[in-house]
Amino acid sequence: MKKKLFLGSDHAGFQLKEDIKKFLDKLRIEHEDLGASSDEPSDYPDIAYELAKKVAAADSRGILMCGTGIGESIVANKVKGIRAANCFNEYTAQKSREHNNSNILCLGARVLSAEEAKTIVKAWLETDFSNEERHRRRLGKIEKIESKGFR
User: Fold this and answer.
1) How far, in Å, CA of 113 to CA of 97, rounded?
2) Which fold has domain 5-148?
3) Helix %, strand %, coil % for the chain, to 5?
4) What is the pTM of this model?
5) 60-106 pLDDT, tens per residue?
6) Alpha helices in the chain (DSSP H)
7) Angle between helical axes of 14-27 and 114-126 (0-180°, round to 10)
8) Residues assigned a catalytic role
9) 40-67, pLDDT tens digit by residue?
10) CA distance 24 to 49
């Protein structure tokens, strides 16, 4: 991965984010921490939205961590151009990249150990989009839905 990776969490994901930062440092992957800066209560929508906007604008990738990964994935997917995937094992991380070209990985700090999360992160970072016609076609359909803005 050549572009900067953006990281974010709420209070529930703070410690996992700190563990993932150390892991990324070992892998020599450039990253920017967008918060939270402690395990004091914080609201996941604020950080997830800011991270998703940065990922979309920079055509980069990001990792979000909260208690379950669910709330942050919902928020991130509200931003045009974002394909956030809440992954819970190596297989789902790989498929989110190969089939869906996910650009944000969401992790649940209350459902995954740090070691499980590192395995998921590594698989997600090392997996490329397959670029197969069927997957490009499906992503095109997602973009058409997104452009209709039914909100």
Assistant:
1) 22
2) Ribose 5-phosphate Isomerase B; Chain: A, (3.40.1400)
3) 50, 15, 35
4) 0.95
5) 999 999 999 999 999 999 999 999 999 999 999 999 999 999 999 99
6) 14-27, 44-58, 70-76, 90-98, 114-126, 133-148
7) 50
8) 66, 99
9) 999 999 999 999 999 999 999 999 999 9
10) 22
